[in-house]
Amino acid sequence: MGNRVKTHVKKNDEVVVISGNHKGEKGRVLQVFPHKSQVIVEGVRLIKKHQKRSQDSPDGGIIEREGPLHISNVKIVSEA
Questions:
Q1: pLDDT tens per residue across span 35-74
Q2: Are 18 and 75 in contact (CB under 8 A)?
Q3: Contacts for 31 with CB less than 8 Å, ≥ 6 apart
Q4: Are 46 and 65 in contact (CB under 8 A)?
Q5: 39: part of which helix (H) or strand (E)?
Q6: Distance CA 16, CA 74 (A)
Q7: What span, in angstroms and rounded, lies between the C-alpha atoms of 30 and 19?
Q8: Which of 13, 16, 28, 57 has the lowest tally of Cβ within 10 angstroms?
């Protein structure tokens, strides 16, 4: 029973980044990694990933996707 890690945010919450390079940016939580204490927020911390050619992506190339943020750097936007 002691394996669960409690977090203050969950998937689909609206959050704002409160510290770091992306301070002030808002977005929706796409994924939460409680054991790593990280979250992925939509449209925040876009990183470029080099994609090798494969069956799924025949062209390959450089794709942009969201990178993880530490969970302590985000806070829930109040619904008031």
A1: 999 999 999 999 999 999 999 888 889 999 999 999 999 9
A2: yes
A3: 11, 39, 40
A4: yes
A5: strand 38-41
A6: 6
A7: 19
A8: 57
One-letter-per-residue 3-state SS of 20-37 = CCCCCCEEEEEEEECCCC
Q: Could you state, in order of their start, the residue ranges of all structural domains in the chain?
A: 14-76
Task: Give the length of the chain.
Answer: 80
47, two tokens: 């990183």
* pTM of the model as a whole: 0.83
Domain 14-76 adopts which CATH fold?
Answer: SH3 type barrels. (2.30.30)
Nearest to 41 by CA among 64, 3, 12, 1: 12
